[in-house]
Amino acid sequence: MTDVPVSAEPEGAYLGAPSQYPPSSPSQRGIFGEQGSGDTSGFGGLVRRRPAVVGSERPYGGYFDEVVDALEAAFPGFADAIERVVVDRGELTLFIKAQRILDVCRVMRDDPALRFELCSSVSGVDYLGADPRRLHTVYHLTSMTYRRRIRLETAVTAEDPHQPSVTSVYPTADWQERETYDMFGIVYDGHPGMTRILMPDDWEGHPQRKDYPLGGVPVEYKGAEIPPPDRRRSYQ
Amino acid sequence: MTGSRGAAASSREDQMTTDAYAASRETTEGRVFTVTGGDWDEVLGSADDPIADERIVVNMGPQHPSTHGVLRLILELEGETVTEARTVVGYLHTGIEKNLEFRNWTQGTTFVTRMDYLSPMFNEAAYCMAVEKLLGIEEQIPQRAKTIRILMMELNRISSHLVWLATTGMELGALSMMIYGFREREYILDIFELASGLRMNHAYIRPGGLAQDLPDEAVTKIREFLSWMPARLDSYEDLLSGSPIWQARTQGVAVLDVQGCLALGITGPVLRSAGLGWDLRKTMPYGGYETYDFEVQTSTDADVWGRYQVRLGEMRQSLRIIEQAMDRLEPGPVMVEDRKIAWPAQLALGADGLGNSLGHVAKIMGQSMESLIHHFKLVTEGFRVPPGQVYLPIESPRGELGVHAISDGGTRPYRVHYREPSFVNLQAIPALAEGGLLADVIAGGASLDPVMGGCDR
Questions:
Q1: Which domain holds residue A30?
Q2: pTM of the model
Q3: Is A138's CB within 8 Å of B389's CB?
Q4: ipTM score for this prediction
Q5: How far is A175 from chain B (nearest CA, A)?
Q6: Cα(B39)–Cα(B44) distance, integer angstroms
Q7: Is residue A116 domain-shared with residue A178, that is, in the same domain?
């Protein structure tokens, strides 16, 4: 492995080059996606990173200010529970401390000024290399009364992947939390049956994590061996 | 004479007891019998009748024709009444979301179209609109591409609802409905084939626009479809609605009210059949739906009958939208102007069928080195998408289909998650089935219209 040392900034002007960043996942290292091939082009050492998420400043615009104000008024522990507010591409994201997510969701659903009756989606994301608390859970809430949408995001570490389940507030999160557990290994405490849902019960590992390989076997075609997709040489 | 018969019978009995039929084994759950039909007497007639209390746990599926694919229901029965129902999914998990992370953004359409195989256009449209939102090019999508997208989605909604009508009719005893439903659906698939080259798994909608323009033959065929479909819909309604069997199997069956729907996250026709007119095309419009004139279909029955009525009405409304879209079809580009995003090659019809455009090949191979580089970079590497995340929900035939797409700035998706209505809606099975009859499990499950390809992804 010929890793570019990334702990120290390169000397000279800020280059903004990919080599300055630690990789966000093994699959996104190098320009051809291949490792250990003896590639001497130098491109194999390129690594990319997600830029850090920065919080937005008020005013957020649209209905976002109203939602944040209403939550601040209805939820006494607001300053303690909300880590960051981000507005991007016309969508509002609240970064919540993982342990407070259930309290926030209850206020979100029950407060008359918020009324997020429907939990549309729960999904996981693995920010390996970009965030020390790499396992994120993303909740998309919908207010049918006000026709609004909001995103809540929490983060836990892979070593202690525990956070409260929101099934007591949104029963629809039941299967979606099971899927996130199945795929990312985030454990939702208080869930009525935290078992795998898509993968077989005896499966080992959590397939959607970034350090879990795509898998596959080499295929022989007309005498040549085609490696599985994640081992193929391809631009990325 | 009798003695010899008795001997034969007893030897047969010996055989029976050692036969593989009605074999039993001890498990941690209790004794499990494997019955294959015709051998129930072996189980029931034995000295220690295992179901003397009339409670029995039955596995329905995963290979049961009435579970719409590979859905497994574990039902606890007391006589014919279901006391407990548990749903097991995951038999069709194909790892599409993981695979997407190893292909570029354009290649993603080829994967997502295979999720919910009855509504591929919706999978593609939601994905492409999410990518466009990440790129910030929503405003630059040509009007013709937007119109054709809506046209295709509404045709797809009709074909999906037709399959629902066909399979549900078959399951509830209206066999001829199955033939008619699939016949009409096949006509719509022919239209898709004319436009994209494929009956299913089209990859027709692409980030930035469409794979190619709608051919004139398809326009003619859609006009033809519009001319006879309303009358056919009426005749199917006549065929089913008046039938006492259809009424008895659907009315008052598998009731789920608005509160139950919202708690369980149920959207789409099931929610609208409970009386809440929540249709994202109207309530949170996307892709230009706000400019079309149509009505949201609701019912207050909250049962299978109500869902049947809502779906019938939606097919008629889709026809209205298709008609308006046809009138708006103006010649023009179907791919975004930006040459850094637009797919460089257009397909062309040659003597041997649809293939590469010879004009394009001549240009990149013989005339313009820059075009060749450009083509090569876009096709092999793909375009870069600025970092960030979006959630893009659309109204699929089954409910809210949401795409949560995340980019890290590269040419491949960092993560794409589908909020699949089939997956979420299937959570309602226990609420629909428990306390009802075994036969109504079929009707209730069918009324959710689950597609396991979408559910398991």
A1: 1-49
A2: 0.84
A3: yes
A4: 0.81
A5: 7
A6: 9
A7: yes
